[in-house]
Amino acid sequence: MDLLQRDVNLLSGQTHSAEVLPRSLGHAYGLAALVTVIPQKPLYVSYDISAKVLDMAITLLKRASDHDIKVAGVEVEIAWTCIASLMTLGPNFVRAHLPQLLVLWRNALPKPTNKETASDGGRSHAEWVFLLHVRESALGAILCFLRHNSPTLVTLDVARRITTMLNNAFTFANAFSSQHGDDPLHPGPDSVSGGPSLRSREYLLRRRLFQCFSALGVSNVPETTQMALMQSLISFFASADGYAGSSVQAAIASSSGTFTALWHTYDGYAYGVTAIQADEKTSISSGDDSMLSKDRLNRDSIEVSIDGMVS
């Protein structure tokens, strides 16, 4: 935490080296990983440490607006990463800070403005990257909250508020998609920043949205929202335009009529059907290795182990 605090102080200065940005993110993820271990070893950690991490994260969110988009994006990612790790501490820690967290989430996931919904909103490339990144990071913290504090803290009122925030993020994602429908579906890295492209940022945001709705549960999501989510999922996963394919896939498809058997993986056709090696000496557990190694039938190893238990 001391290393992260030092990097955060450097970010707030007028001048800082280029290595401060990735280094601060590295320290943030390292700190977050250590925080998630606290529930396993609670006797070795003081409560004050978790409170200090939360205070530092809130301070970063408040002052992010004072810096340029590049620095603000790093500060926001650091803050939400730390908050997401604190959600793993469970209701004993989160309960006291839940009202403040709901306010932070509401500020990070507001209703889309006219600039986002209008066809000629006028948002720049960097602004869209920042807005997508902020929402994705905030949704990551919400997902951790739902996974580690439900159903104790996810009351009807809390679920209603979170559903409203998720709907705002869903509307924003749809508005972005309508304005950038002509962008390539399989883009490379961003040519400006070197990071994920706009389309990749949208995919990351939608992934978090689907995960949050799934963790929230069907009973807490209105039917209209469920229908909109189903339509979005169908168009997102089943659209033919989303599977343009690659040169490797095209080569496999062109030679699909020449293969002799699925077991001949050298022809490139069945390769990738499974990542499990077909080895007679391979066993799942050490309970009955001899039974698995002696089996000469072309059967799934799970079936073999079940037969061994019931025989």
Residues in helix, %: 55-70%
Number of helices: 13
Structural class: mainly alpha
Number of strands: 0
Question: Measured on Cα atoms, how large is the radius of gyration?
Answer: 24 Å
Mean pLDDT reading: 80
Number of domains: 3
Main sheet characteristics: none
Uncertain runs: 280-292
Give an overview of the whole structure.
The structure is a single chain. By secondary structure, the chain is mainly α. The chain folds into three domains: 1-89, no CATH class; 106-244, no CATH class; 248-310, no CATH class. 61% of the residues lie in helices and 0% in strands. α2 runs parallel beside α4. The protein is globular and about 65 Å long. 24% of the residues are buried. Residues 280-292 have low confidence and may be disordered.
Strand-helix topology:
Blueprint (H helix, E strand, L loop, with lengths): L1 H10 L8 H16 L11 H17 L5 H18 L4 H18 L5 H4 L7 H25 L6 H24 L18 H19 L6 H15 L9 H8 L34 H6 L6 H10 L1
